[in-house]
Amino acid sequence: MKKPDVIVIGGGAAGLFCAFTAGQRGLSVLVLDSSNKVGKKILMSGGGRCNFTNLDITPENYLCNNPHFCISALNRYNQWQFIDMVERHGIAYHERKHGELFCDESAKDILAMLLDECQQAGVVIKTKCEIKTVAASEQEGYSLQTSSGNYQCKSLVVATGGLSIPTMGASGLGYELAEQFGLNLLPRSAGLVPFTFSDGIKQISEKLSGLAVDVEMSVNGISFRENLLFTHRGISGPATLQLSSYWKPGQTISVNLLPDLNSQELLLGYKKTSAKSLLRNLLAQHLSKGLVLELQSLYWLNMPRQQ
Ligand SMILES: Cc1cc2nc3c(=O)[nH]c(=O)nc-3n(C[C@H](O)[C@H](O)[C@H](O)COP(=O)(O)OP(=O)(O)OC[C@H]3O[C@@H](n4cnc5c(N)ncnc54)[C@H](O)[C@@H]3O)c2cc1C
Questions:
Q1: Which residues pair with 151 in a beta bridge?
Q2: How far does residue 14's CA lie from ligand 1's centre (Å)?
Q3: Looking at the DSSP assignment, which residues form a beta bridge with residue 101?
Q4: pLDDT value for 303
Q5: Backbone dihedral region of 47: left (phi > 0), alpha (psi from -120 to 50 degrees) or beta?
Q6: What are the angstrom distances between the C-alpha of 78 and each of 63, 157, 200?
Q7: Which string of b and e fits 263-286 if b means at least 16 CB within 10 Å?
Q8: Residue 168 and residue 40 in contact, taking contact as beta carbons nearer than 8 Å
Q9: Three-state SS for 162?
Q10: Spacing, Cα 64 to ligand 1 middle (Å)
Q11: Are residues 39 and 166 in the same domain?
Q12: Does the pLDDT value for residue 164 go beyond 90?
């Protein structure tokens, strides 16, 4: 297929979905991907079970400078249509917290579904294809020079994904093409990512690795009440991942480890009733002992006593 109607660069979740949608409209579609396999990120999503949609989706759930886009996108395609497709493909799924839907078996089922839809729509997929140049002209449409030869198409879709995890095939081609075609580029920032540390918090995180704590995490007036998970490099878990999308370098994150209690009132109460008790013993009534000991070593064990 050297002159399809549509070329989609990138065979991730977005590219494959777009490809079979165009195919279903009767267009000839070619997907070009530089990786050896398409849909690799889908396979690692949701811890291998793919959190493929959510029961409670509204435009407000999306971070976007143009809220109208989210409204019109969801008006045209919503979670119920996706769930319907999942069910048509006989994929078993279950609901977790907050309406999140995951595969019972594996994220492989979601990739297989997208590939099946592509096949039914006559989409051709070419992997290990490096894009060298893209040019546009009024007569020829788009012309692509690639490691597997030259292609032409009327419509070009760039679905090369974000920059995270280059070993999964991520590249900056989408941004380069946007620049080449004069589109406005906004500053990029990481979202839905864990926080890593290099100071004392890294040391305590390493020791507490695997421990999940129910917290309220906040930055810039936005807060999430969810689990924080300590890892070998820092903190992760749903509260951290959510909050990362709102954090900018240099900003302070606050973590309330006692979200159901007023900690000031609690400590003042203890001052009256248990003035001689050690802080660690009092806090251990509300938090895991391991966490309290690490907080103690980090924040108050070696601090000079206030007169
Ligand atoms: C650990 C992890 C867990 C996640 N869990 C979930 C989850 O449970 N639910 C959820 O909804 N989302 C989840 N996500 C996010 C989700 O995986 C991504 O948002 C989604 O896969 C992005 O799809 P995409 O098609 O935009 O990009 P990608 O999946 O990145 O696909 C881009 C494609 O373009 C190709 N490509 C890149 N550069 C070039 C180039 N120069 N030439 C040709 N091809 C190129 C790549 O090889 C790739 O196949 C998770 C992400 C991670 C990292």
A1: 144
A2: 8
A3: 53, 95
A4: 66
A5: left
A6: 17, 21, 44
A7: eeeeeeebeeeeeeeeebebbbee
A8: yes
A9: coil
A10: 18
A11: yes
A12: no
User: With a 6 A CB cut-off, is 205 part of the ligand 1 pocket?
Assistant: no
Centre of ligand 1 to C-alpha 160, Å, is 8
Core vs surface per residue 18-46: b (16+ CB within 10 A) or e: bbbbbbeeebbbbbbbbbeebbbbbeebb
Residue 151 falls inside a structural domain: yes
For residue 75, what are the contacts with CB-CB under 8 A and spacing of at least 6?
none
Q: How far is the CA of 268 from the centre of ligand 1 (A)?
A: 50
pTM over 0.90: no
| Owning domain of residue 163 | 6-180
Question: Is 68 buried (19+), middle (13-18) or exposed (0-12) by CB count in 10 A?
Answer: exposed
Structure tokens at 300: 């108050």
Among the listed residues 237, 247, 244, 243, the one whose alpha carbon sits nearest the alpha carbon of residue 214: 237
CA distance 115 to 11: 10
CATH number of the domain within which 12 lies:
3.50.50.60
Q: Looking at ligand 1, which residue's alpha carbon is closest to its atom 18?
A: 41
| Residue 226 Cβ contacting ligand 1 at under 6 Å | no
Q: What is the CATH number of the domain that holds 210?
A: 2.40.30.10
The whole-number average pLDDT for the span 262-270 is 94
Instruction: Please write the tens of the pLDDT for every residue from 182-193.
Output: 999 988 888 899
DSSP designation for 46: G
Interatomic CA distance for residues 215 and 221, integer angstroms: 15
Q: Ligand 1 pocket: which of 93, 97, 160 to mutate (most atoms <8 Å of CB)?
A: 160
